[in-house]
Amino acid sequence: MTTSRTASRLAPADRRATRWYGSLPKRAASVVGGLVTAGGILAGVYADAVRHFIDDNATDIVLGACALVLAVSAASAGFLVGGRRVRERMVLIEDKSFVIEPEVAADIVGFDAVVGRTIHYLERASDSPDLVVFLHGLGLDANDFRGYMAETRHHAVAVTLFGFDQRDRGDARFGVISLESHMSVLESFLVWIKKQYPHKRLHLVGFSFGADMLMFLAERLSGRHGRLGDSIVLLDPNINRSSMFISTSICQLDISNPLGGLKKLLEGADGMIEFQNLCEYLHKVCSKNLAQVQRLACDVRSKWEESGYTQFLKRLAAVDERTRRASVVFSFHYEQHFNELIRAAGRMNFVVTEMHSTEFDHFQLIGPNALYRQLDLVIDGVVAPS
User: Fold this and answer.
1) Which residues contact 256 (CB under 8 A, 6 or more apart)?
2) How far, in Å, CA of 269 to CA of 282, rounded?
3) How far apart are CA 93 and CA 88, in angstroms?
């Protein structure tokens, strides 16, 4: 097992496809400089005429120059602040859907109705040999990965799990289903997406609940042949119930009157950044089917032990068996666990994966800059088999 620590300042990824946006302020400055130069030449050639013109229009010239400077400054600031959003609008990220096939019914336990329904996903296609598939956190959706998808050179797909698309809220066809049924649907989607792009290397990235899903899938596939993906990246997976503050809080909500419990969840923030992130998270979660979010929170919590790291490490071993390269990336909230986790792996003689401890907040791990650094390290390290 290898470990490392990643600093909070990450090198920006290659943005050659959209680099002209970054140069717009310089281009605007060049235009202004060119106008000044042209004015200087005219003043040299027609010195007397220019001098009389300046004397007669001095106030208007000063006001015009000030307006030009302000316009250039505003344009530069606008492009610097809004550059990423502009790039997201310009890059073609398609909103697509996958129809759940009847074969999935064989793996469904109980009466969960999923066959014939659709799950939505975002796709930014490219000719890259690498296909990256993202799985979101509890109550979130594919839109959390739009920033990265707009700028990456890789072919990228982000899945919204069954019933978590805002368009499905209130739709009677998308009832509450169990974690096991979610895994059956996800497995079916991954098999399907592999068939769509059989010659591409498949890289799976799970964030929080999405990372847990990948670990559970790896356990579920024990004894079968084949890989889940060429690489698997787990961003802040749970390690035991002590790391499940959000899931536990949601599991304990009174769905008929959830406001008090949601307020209490906010009180658990350790600082302003975490408080802001939790507010944004709850804003997203409250737009979904809260009963489905709660069902998954409780189901996931039931699959983890109260404390210790044995269960987590065994699940990592299962992941490692299902991929050519596995990587685990932790936010700074896991610092209290990280050293002991490494020691526990040593005591169990586990050499299963790469682990990285970062200085990022939990939700910052899915920001474009963090994803660039963490994913490129893994993806570029997975070469085609000889």
Assistant:
1) none
2) 13
3) 8
Is the overall model pTM greater than 0.85, yes or no? no
Per-residue pLDDT at 373: 86
In this predicted model, what pLDDT tens digit does every residue of 71-125 receive, in sequence order?
555 555 454 445 555 444 567 899 999 999 999 998 888 889 999 999 999 999 9
Domain 94-379 has what CATH class? Answer: alpha beta
Domain ranges of the chain: 16-86, 94-379
pLDDT value at residue 346: 84
- Give the strand pairing for 118-124 and 2-6: unpaired
Phi/psi of residue 200, each to 5°?
Answer: -100, 150
On the 0-12 / 13-18 / 19+ scale of CB atoms within 10 A, 374 is buried
Nearest-CA neighbor of 319 among 207, 156, 204, 149? 204
Q: Which residues are CB-neighbours of 82 under 8 A, at least 6 positions away?
A: none
- Residue 382 CB coordination number (10 Å): 17
Instruction: Please compute, for residue 279, the number of CA atoms within 13 A of its CA located in the half-sphere on the CB side.
Output: 6
pLDDT digits (tens, 9 = 90+) for 195-226: 999 999 999 999 999 999 999 999 998 878 78
Can you tell me which residue has the tokens 């030009």? Answer: 68
